[in-house]
Design a protein that fits this description.
By secondary structure, the chain is α/β, with parallel strands linked by helices. The protein has a single domain, classed as Rossmann fold, CATH 3.40.50.150. It has ten helices and eight strands. Strands 1, 2, 3, 4, 5, 6, 7 and 8 form an eight-stranded mixed β-sheet that branches. Helix 1 packs across helix 2 (29-41). It is globular. The mean pLDDT is 87. It holds the Pfam family Methyltransf_19. One of its GO terms (molecular function) is methyltransferase activity. One of its GO terms (biological process) is methylation.
Length: 268
């Protein structure tokens, strides 16, 4: 079990910054300042968070409605906001089970309080960079049936991890552990070069300036290696805004919206 640390309100937290960008209230002034600085340096930085939440909703609808999945393991889930995974899932299938996992102290405290009365949704404190810790967690093992397909979420998580970690190997461990017929929902910040690439470098520098681990905007080839052994659902690995959009785009996307790639993959 991972020991829960006290909440640090003196430096920004990625989870609380994301919460603020989505209109949540579980954040502090230091988080709001960091988000504001990133947005002032690279207009559209907040749009990345909004884009990723909209993606989560669309992917979740697809998995529960089209793929018939009724078990979900949401890694690095972050702080509760509107339209969390279990809310989207259980509108269609009230019997579906969801496990959220995170090791951020703020997330652990708020997540457990939110889910106290929901017997089909639970929270596990574990570090997503340690697959053995996550997969061996008592809550994860007990709450999900590992004989049947599971949807594993790695949405906007691994771009917070350094190059020193073997991220393709980490993902291989997760995929190997999933039952046949399972799915992986995935998104990751991308550096496409050009004007969008200049934007992401400003976001990265802003986060470094505010004392947080800088986001890693990786190449397409690097991101593809994090999806080992999976058959990608159409349209494959694409900008998040292009993954099963809800309707036609009525305005040109901001450059920064090209800077997050997404895919859903199925394990045979």
């Amino acid at each position: 079990m991972v020991a829960e640390l006290p909440v640090d309100t003196s430096t920004p937290s990625v989870a609380r910054m994301y919460n603020y960008a989505l209109g949540g209230k579980d954040n502090f002034e230091v988080d709001r300042q960091a988000v504001g600085a990133a947005e002032s340096l690279a207009p559209g930085a907040v749009a990345l968070a909004v884009e990723n939440r909209a993606l989560l909703i669309r992917m979740t609808r697809f998995l529960v409605t089209n793929a018939g999945v009724d078990q979900f393991l949401d890694l690095g889930s972050g702080l509760p906001t509107a339209e969390n995974t279990h809310q989207v899932v259980q509108r269609t299938d009230p019997r579906a089970r969801v496990v959220y996992s995170d090791n951020d102290p703020s997330v652990a405290a708020h997540g457990r309080a939110l889910l106290d009365d929901d017997e089909r949704t639970t929270f596990a404190v574990a570090d997503l960079t340690d697959p053995d810790q996550v997969l061996g967690n008592e809550t994860v093992r007990r709450h999900l049936d590992w004989r049947r397909p599971i949807a594993l979420y790695q949405l906007a998580t691994l771009h917070h991890q350094p190059d020193s970690l073997d991220l393709p190997g980490l993902m291989r461990t997760y995929v190997d552990a999933l039952p046949a017929g399972s799915f992986v929902a995935f998104s990751h910040f991308h550096d496409p070069g050009g004007v969008p690439g200049q934007q992401v470098e400003r976001i990265r520098q802003s986060m470094l300036d505010h004392g947080t681990d800088a986001d890693h905007f990786r190449s397409r080839a690097e991101i593809e290696r994090m999806l080992p052994g999976l058959d990608l659902v159409e349209p494959g690995l694409v900008p998040a805004m292009d993954w099963w959009p809800d309707g036609p785009r009525l305005a040109d996307p901001q450059p920064v919206q090209h800077c997050i790639l997404a895919a859903v993959g199925r394990k045979r």
